[in-house]
Amino acid sequence: MQDDRLPIWLPRLAAQGGPRFLQIADALQAALADGSLTPGDRLPPQRQLAAQLNVDLTTITRAYDEARRRHLLEGRGARGTYVAAPKVELTSVLDLSMNTPPPPDGVDFDDMLKQGLSQVLMRADSALLMTYHLGGGSDSDRKAGAKWLEPMFGSLDSAQVLVCPGAQAAIAALILALTEPGDVILAEPASYPGLRTAAAQFGRRIIAVAADKHGMLPEALSQACREHKPGLVYLNPTLQNPTAITMAERRRKEIASIAKRCNVRIVEDDPYWLLADAPPPPIATLAPEQVYYISTLSKCLTPGLRVAFVLIRDAHERERFLVALRSFALMVAPLTAALATQWIFDGSAETLMQGVRKEARLRHRMARDVLAGRYSGAGDGLHVWLELPGYWNSSQLARAAESEGIAVTPAEAFATGSGSVNAIRISLGSIKDRGRLKAGLQRLSHLLARRPESFSAAVV
């Protein structure tokens, strides 16, 4: 005789409580936390639970799959499904060094991925997804790029938008297309390390231009343009990596005016604009003929797509860019480009991005609470730039943190000149679990409060 009573750990499903399979998985997780379930407990067969809850079997299957993904359950063949023993972490390193989007709470990424790929495979010729494509993206991909850029620029001609395998590839191709060996590239004193890597590989020189709390100083840029005749200026003006500064609109107008007057071209690398709270218009809206604009999906959605959009107004310069890009990266992988296009047009990209924005803000509030007076972030974006007390230097602090199982990035990694600020960058998205992130921030806060002479690494 079938027992129709609900398991004690499972609450009644709420009509407004979100997807039912997630409610079931959440109830499993809560039951483990409060002791209603313990490792080794056997769960009801899926058909039985579906009947008890008056849902279809697919809902229960998805709930159990989600619980397995969270390492809550394990299957034992014909014997059934059991509560899993706690997963043993083989590494204790808490990675606060990599700028990746945090996993958004309430967004079923696995389902979004499956649905997106299903739509792509239904609508596209699979042979076309597995062959060579011309660089710069298909018409559909470029239209998706134009749609992605609408919040920054309004309506765009999609012919001006090129699709690239990530922002790093776009930066490298722009350097190759627009400069010659030995040319100078101007950048802020602390800047994206990928710029320095690409410039060194191609034989270009980076010269640091002084900046303040609002970004690159206009008068310093003007002087550097007269003195060095640069091939390019590189800027990351919104939630800058690593300082998290957002350049004000007035400063952007001054920079744009100098670019026009000195006839210097700007690479505006803007991965965080869509994550920022009311950011100013891009510099590319103020000097469209001088500025090459890059927007990547890696920081707003997921790095695995490897898709970035580049806005280049001039047709001749677009062709030069594509020639340079083809020398080292023929195309974006067609399958991931098609998935990005599908997500942008069906609204999944917007849903995922809003989830990332919300989660990032929650994590900033956590960092503000844990780091107390040391926190100086903007409250949005993916990272915090933490200036250190005088008794620590950034390399020393990074080594001490590593010894305590925390990875952070010291200021030296971002320096474009001979000196660097005494600071570290803390990335808030790379640790999936919010509780583990808080634990890492707390350990880092305790370390910051100690003087180096009281720190001694274990020797084994």
UniProtKB/TrEMBL annotation:
Q: Could you tell me which Pfam families the record lists for this protein? A: Aminotran_1_2, GntR
Q: Which molecular function GO terms apply here? A: transaminase activity
Chain ranges of the HTH gntR-type domain: 18-86
From what superkingdom does this record's organism come? Bacteria
Query: Which keywords label this protein?
Result: Aminotransferase, DNA-binding, Pyridoxal phosphate, Transcription, Transcription regulation, Transferase
Q: PANTHER family of this UniProt entry?
A: HTH-TYPE TRANSCRIPTIONAL REGULATORY PROTEIN GABR
Name of the protein this chain belongs to: PLP-dependent aminotransferase family protein
- Organism, by scientific name, is Acidovorax bellezanensis
